Amino acid sequence: MTTIDAPRTPVNRTRRGVNLEKWGWMYMRASGVVLVVLIFGHLFVNLVAGEGVKQIDFAFVAGKLTDPFWIVWDTLLLWLALIHGANGMRTLVNDYVTKPKVRAALHFALASSTAVLLILGTLVIYTFDPCPAGADPELVASFCSTL
């Protein structure tokens, strides 16, 4: 027969160290709040302000990625959203995968894909060239020289 302790019964914690589940839970709440602001700001600037969706082309993106404010904004959006999503997927794996080897493989795949996407996304944001050599002047941003 299994007995259940009273709700306020103190728990003997023998494991010491950092509680990763607690910090993951706290990250999800904090990043969720920040992501709401970042996502709605992103959607407003891209879809509502100016000419709406008609304005989105290479020159629009190039203009945004030359402004340090938007570089930081997009970097925060990328990192918070990817880590938030990966943490959510990690929680799903922990909840539904019962075999330890399968769980470990899925955690490895999740961590690897998240790391690759973070590295590639960050590289795109910080190494983007708004004025590529040999590009059609009609397609590049107006601040690019036509030399």
Unreliable stretches (pLDDT < 50, length at least 5) are none
Structural domain tally: 1
**Helix-strand category:** mainly alpha
Query: Which CATH top level class fits?
Result: Mainly Alpha
Name the overall outline: elongated
Indicate the mean pLDDT. 86
Q: Say which CATH homologous superfamily is assigned.
A: Fumarate reductase/succinate dehydrogenase, transmembrane subunit
State the order of secondary-structure elements, H for helix, E for strand: HHHH
Query: β content, as a range?
Result: under 5%
Q: What's the helix count?
A: 4
Sheet of most strands: none
Q: What is the annotated CATH architecture?
A: Up-down Bundle
CATH level 3 topology: 3 helical TM bundles of succinate and fumarate reductases
Helicity level, as a percent range?
Answer: 55-70%
Counting DSSP E segments of at least 2 residues, the number of strands comes to 0
Rg, alpha carbons: 22 Å
- Give the termini separation: 83 Å
GO molecular function: electron transfer activity; heme binding; metal ion binding
Subcellular location: Cell inner membrane
Pathway: Carbohydrate metabolism; tricarboxylic acid cycle
Cofactor: heme
